[in-house]
């Protein structure tokens, strides 16, 4: 009997060892596969970005030196400088947003807050230290895709944020999750779980947390107002819609939607790079762009060359090529400043949500991001002001205006301004944007 039990014990011990080794081997295999996939994705993204950069430079040279027409877009400039406290030639190119605020006589303070799903995001308070008037109405500003809150400040005295501060609003600027420095209470930027989100989570977790924090810090007894540009308008619209029904309408009174990204424009059906992303199978997308950040090579390059003239040139030519706009309505002296605060980290899943109608929401020409049938909004929906660019082919603001006017109970609760010569970013950076919509915006924000 003992001699029969000895092999059994050995077999049992061997089986236990094998069972312990198997999960370890599987974990190692998973790690190796993830690393291999990450390397493959980085190579694909590098080649893709290099190809786009080459095309964008060629496009820029062709449009400016071959097809140039000085009467094509006459420059419209406001008479005042963007930063009156310094000679424009001495303006530093730095990714420090506080530097530009201080040139305007303003201060910027940062609050780091944590969302319910663990992301640590930045909320900034922009204020005039010489004006301590209490009980100012808070306004929260949300940026667009691949941008940050700096987009609302870089125009200096001609910026929307500056106008609001000088008109006694309590101005708050938000950065969405990840931004320039991905932060989470549990995950690191190398974890796949860190990037498992799209615009739904940004509306549900980021925006709600930002609103609650502003109201908590300010102790404002009433409602706050929201201003969004492009993707920021989509976040706001999802928040106040029946589709998400998050119950925040009692905290918001007025919303301003700049270049509202609710219906896709014709550009989405014309650009080859968008067709490529929309058309590839889900498995190919995951191999090409990975499960982590969308083309993190962009951020690596940004961190190397940000603040140099080549960075501003590359950023402008790339975005101009991809989205068919130019800088003819901007102040040329501060064009590089505008791009100091972009691009930012976003998830590959978010880009899939925007661009892939097979695997995401599918932002495409003439199609809305909200899929609910019938009315999109409750009767207590905040009032809306839409600012639409007539040359904005990335989004279709006219369709959203028609939806609000003809199909929603919003006829008395929204206004719009259409600027025929404006494109997608002109609503932020055009030299005369405050002259065109500033007074109307202030009047709208003060309405009850």
From TrEMBL:
Assigned keywords, A-Z: Membrane, Transmembrane, Transmembrane helix
Ranges of biased composition (kind: Basic and acidic residues): 1-11
GO biological process, one term: lipid metabolic process
TM regions (residue ranges): 39-62, 304-323
Region (Disordered): 1-22
Top-level taxon: Eukaryota
Name the record gives this protein: Unnamed protein product
InterPro entries in the record: AB_hydrolase_fold, AB_hydrolase_lipase
Pfam family, one: Abhydro_lipase
Record-annotated Partial AB-hydrolase lipase domain positions: 98-156
């Amino acid at each position: 009997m003992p001699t029969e039990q000895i092999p059994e014990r050995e077999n049992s011990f061997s089986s236990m060892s094998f069972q312990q080794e198997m999960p370890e081997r599987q974990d190692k295999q998973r790690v190796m596969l993830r690393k291999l996939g990450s390397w493959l994705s980085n190579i694909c993204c590098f080649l893709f970005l290099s190809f786009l950069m080459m095309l964008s430079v060629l496009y820029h040279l062709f449009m400016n030196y071959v097809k140039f027409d000085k009467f094509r877009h006459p420059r419209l400039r406001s008479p005042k400088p963007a930063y009156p406290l310094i000679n424009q030639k001495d303006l530093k190119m730095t990714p420090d947003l506080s530097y530009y605020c201080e040139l305007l006589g303003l201060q910027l303070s940062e609050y780091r807050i944590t969302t319910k799903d663990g992301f640590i995001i930045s909320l900034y308070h922009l204020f005039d230290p010489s004006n301590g008037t209490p009980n100012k109405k808070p306004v929260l500003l949300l940026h667009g895709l691949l941008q940050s809150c700096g987009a609302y400040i870089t125009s200096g005295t001609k910026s929307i944020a500056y106008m609001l501060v000088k008109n006694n609003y309590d101005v708050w600027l938000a950065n969405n999750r990840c931004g320039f420095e991905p932060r989470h209470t549990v995950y690191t930027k190398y974890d796949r779980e860190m990037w498992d989100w799209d615009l739904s989570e940004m509306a549900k977790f980021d925006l709600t947390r930002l609103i609650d924090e502003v109201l908590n810090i300010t102790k404002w007894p009433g409602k706050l107002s929201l201003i969004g540009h492009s993707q920021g308008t989509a976040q706001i619209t999802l928040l106040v819609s029946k589709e998400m029904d998050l119950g925040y309408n009692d905290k918001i009174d007025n919303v301003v939607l700049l270049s509202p990204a609710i219906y896709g424009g014709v550009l989405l059906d014309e650009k080859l790079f968008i067709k490529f992303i929309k058309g590839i199978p889900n498995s190919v997308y995951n191999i090409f762009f990975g499960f982590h950040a969308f083309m993190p090579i962009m951020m690596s390059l940004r961190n190397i060359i940000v603040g140099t003239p080549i960075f501003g040139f590359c950023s402008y030519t790339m975005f101009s090529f991809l989205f068919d706009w130019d800088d003819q309505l901007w102040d040329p002296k501060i064009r590089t400043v505008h791009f100091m605060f972009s691009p930012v980290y976003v998830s590959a899943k978010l880009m899939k949500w925007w661009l892939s109608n097979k695997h995401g929401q599918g932002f495409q020409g003439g199609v809305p991001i909200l899929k609910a049938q019938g009315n999109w909004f409750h009767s207590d929906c905040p009032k809306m002001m839409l600012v639409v660019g007539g040359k904005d082919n990335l989004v279709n603001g006219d369709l959203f205006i028609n939806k609000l006017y003809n199909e929603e109970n919003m006829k008395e609760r929204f206004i719009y301004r259409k600027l025929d010569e404006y494109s997608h970013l002109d609503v932020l950076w055009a030299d005369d944007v405050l002259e065109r919509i500033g007074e109307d915006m202030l009047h709208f924000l003060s309405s009850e």
